[in-house]
């Protein structure tokens, strides 16, 4: 159970503690932040409302701990990460339980998230050992006008303090996808979890604590974004920010200083369906892509652009599958569970009502109970409807009928977002041309969009983000290149 067994020390009465200087602490604010269970809409957990002074303290510790961590051999850093991964996986049950209660993620998927996170940490440790264990050696005489008098040695060095801000939908996985690359590369790490997802993150951080990382190297600050959000992101000690979430990321990037940013800010992933597509395959992928975790994924299929000639058949197939989706509590592994908050449910409802007023065809009756919204497929959506462009982050999927491939590509490219997209066709040549024409960070051919496997590059164009994620790219983003040049008095050619 969450907060029990090895996790007892992270709880102070009914409020979870924050993690600073290698210890679990109660904030001097005397205040807490409530975490509302999306299913029951009642307070499930409470976390500390940390103060700006506590942020300052954590930053100070992070700066000094990083100096010695950077001098810790790479193999030792990797060993500790492997240990943390093992502890995390051993304790998947209580962590998954808090995911179920805080973010209403179905129980099975919650366990998958924790296991996937352990695997990511281990993969990152191995990848770090490989890519950080080698540098480059350049010779000057390849550039015009130079003799071989300069030997240039390059290696990758840490940035310093990395601030990680994961989102509510993958609080554990998208936290470790930032923590593990930062640590293996020799950085220290300050984590600011989302309010919903904070308790899962605190449990995950305790696994790193138990693995024996040095004091102050990892910290976890909880509290209200309105009180400590800007203070954290604009803190002079921060040398890199890795953020996943909504358009808050755009304001963070405007305020952040001259530091590397890794931002993933959502998408409106299009699914383009051509006339020759395998419609059963498309229908299964629309269900998986559009309705997994009730559509609360950046990479969810968020608009279907289907050729008119096959649209009726596809819509019928998807409708039949939607009818089979189970709706209810995450504890019972229902496919569709409550969305994360009442304001999110209200936003989704606003998009649905706009589509209704403007004449979309409802393939199911619109139904809502509290934060629970039944899955809904909207056919005959037109570009003047908000749902054609905005991301509901819920179980509502619009279908736009198109008369040409160009129309589909144009719709996809007119979006402010450019995370992923997918195209279904049996013609690989056409698929490649469409992929090249789509202005998105990734295009999936004959499958729904997805970030994983976690070592694949993951990036968005336009308002979908800055920088690229995936294990290798994250390690590289959290390092800087350092060079040392050996200058010789006379040219030297080996074996010359
Ligand atoms: O919404 C976060 C985004 O990273 C999605 O990940 O694994 O569901 O494709 P995934």
TrEMBL record:
It comes from the Eukaryota. GO terms for cellular component: cytoplasm. Residues 24-483 form the Aldehyde dehydrogenase domain. Keywords: Cytoplasm, NADP, Oxidoreductase. The keyword Oxidoreductase applies. GO terms for molecular function: glyceraldehyde-3-phosphate dehydrogenase (NADP+) (non-phosphorylating) activity; lactaldehyde dehydrogenase (NAD+) activity. It is an enzyme of class 1 (oxidoreductase). The active site is at residue 264. It is found in: Cytoplasm. It catalyses: D-glyceraldehyde 3-phosphate + NADP(+) + H2O = (2R)-3-phosphoglycerate + NADPH + 2 H(+). Its EC number is 1.2.1.9. Belongs to the aldehyde dehydrogenase family. This is NADP-dependent glyceraldehyde-3-phosphate dehydrogenase. It comes from Thlaspi arvense (Field penny-cress).
């Amino acid at each position: 159970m969450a907060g029990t067994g090895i996790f007892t020390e992270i709880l102070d009465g009914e409020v979870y503690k924050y993690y600073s200087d290698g210890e679990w602490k109660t904030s001097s604010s005397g205040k807490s932040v409530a975490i509302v269970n999306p299913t029951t809409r009642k307070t499930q957990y409470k976390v500390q409302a940390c103060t700006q002074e506590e942020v300052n303290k954590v930053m100070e510790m992070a700066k000094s701990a990083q100096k010695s961590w950077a001098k810790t051999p790479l193999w030792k850093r990797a060993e500790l990460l492997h240990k943390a991964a093992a502890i995390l996986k051993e304790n998947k049950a209580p962590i998954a339980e808090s995911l179920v209660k805080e973010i209403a993620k179905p129980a099975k998927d919650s366990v998958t998230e924790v296991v996937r996170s352990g695997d990511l940490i281990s993969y990152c440790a191995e990848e770090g050992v490989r890519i950080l264990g080698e540098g480059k050696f350049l010779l000057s005489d390849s550039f015009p006008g130079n003799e071989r008098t300069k030997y240039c040695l390059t290696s990758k060095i840490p940035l310093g303090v990395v601030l990680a801000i994961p989102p509510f939908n993958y609080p554990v996985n998208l936290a470790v996808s930032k923590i593990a690359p930062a640590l293996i590369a020799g950085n220290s790490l300050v984590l600011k979890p989302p309010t919903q997802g904070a308790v899962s993150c605190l449990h995950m951080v305790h696994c790193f604590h138990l693995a024996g990382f040095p004091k102050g190297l990892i910290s976890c600050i909880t509290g209200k974004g309105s009180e400590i959000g800007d203070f954290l992101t604009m803190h002079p000690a921060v040398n890199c920010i890795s953020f996943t979430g909504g358009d808050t990321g755009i304001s963070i990037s405007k305020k952040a200083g001259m530091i590397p940013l890794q931002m993933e800010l959502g998408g409106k992933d299009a699914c383009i369906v051509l006339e020759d597509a395998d419609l059963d395959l498309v229908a299964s992928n629309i269900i998986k892509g559009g309705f997994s975790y009730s559509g609360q994924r950046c990479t969810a299929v968020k608009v279907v652009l289907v050729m008119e000639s096959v649209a009726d058949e596809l819509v019928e197939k998807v409708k039949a599958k939607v009818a089979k989706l189970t709706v209810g509590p995450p504890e019972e592994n229902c496919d569709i569970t409550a969305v994360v908050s009442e304001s999110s449910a209200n936003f989704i409802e606003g998009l649905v009502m706009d589509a209704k007023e403007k004449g979309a065809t409802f393939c199911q009756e619109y139904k809502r109970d509290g934060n629970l919204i039944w899955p809904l497929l909207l056919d005959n959506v037109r570009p003047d409807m908000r749902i054609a462009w905005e991301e509901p982050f819920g179980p509502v999927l619009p279908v736009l009928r198109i008369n040409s491939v160009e129309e589909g590509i144009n719709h996809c490219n007119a979006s402010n977002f450019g995370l992923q997209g997918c195209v279904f066709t049996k013609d690989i040549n056409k698929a490649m041309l469409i992929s090249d024409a789509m202005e998105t960070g990734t295009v999936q051919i004959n499958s729904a969009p997805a970030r994983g496997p976690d070592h694949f590059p993951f990036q968005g164009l336009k308002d979908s983000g800055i920088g690229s994620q995936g294990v290798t790219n994250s390690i590289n983003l959290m390092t800087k290149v350092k060079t040392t040049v050996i200058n010789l008095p006379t040219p030297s050619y080996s074996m010359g």
